[in-house]
Amino acid sequence: MTPDELLAGQVRTLLITADTLTTQIAEMVVQNHVERDAMAVREAKMVDLEVAFRKNSETVAQVVKLLEPLAGLFKVIGWIGTAIKWLGAVAAACLAIYSLWYTWSHNGDLPKIK
Predict the structure, then answer these.
(1) Fewer CB within a 10 Å sphere, N or C end of the chain?
(2) DSSP code, position 63
(3) Could you give the maximum distance between any two Cα atoms of the chain, in Å?
(4) Model confidence over 67-91: pLDDT tens digits?
């Protein structure tokens, strides 16, 4: 191979390499633009989520503000419910005792409905 042919082969290799590098750089620039656009979309969604989170936090704070004064009321209602439960148990026990007494005192006869 002559030096001119060797030089022509090296130039051809350099041109192919330069063309490949140019293509790769162009693809990287396009991909960079695509990623930048996707990042902008994600940032916009993040801002929307932050706004929604703030609104939700404000709503929860208002609900808590409304329910805090009612905490004592809920406690009293719980006590009343417990008292009603015990009164029901006592009433059931009294009814059972009365039924036993009635059955014993009337020789097992059922009450007569008038």
Answers:
(1) C
(2) H
(3) 137
(4) 888 888 889 999 999 999 999 999 9
Chain centroid, CA 93 distance in Å: 47
Q: What do you get for the CA distance between the two ends of the chain, in Å? A: 134
Q: Which two tokens stand for residue 56?
A: 């939700």
Question: Which pair of tokens denotes residue 51?
Answer: 């706004």
pTM: 0.44
User: How big is the chain by its Cα radius of gyration, in Å?
Assistant: 44
Inter-residue contact 102 to 111 (CB < 8 Å): yes
Do 111 and 101 contact (CB within 8 A), yes or no?
A: no
- At residue 96's C-alpha, the angle toward residues 93 and 101, to 5°, is 125
3-state helix, strand, coil in the chain (%, to 5): 90, 0, 10
CA distance 63 to 74: 15
Residue 26, both tokens: 């162009």
Dihedral-angle region of residue 108 (phi above 0 means left; psi in -120 to 50 means alpha; beta otherwise):
left
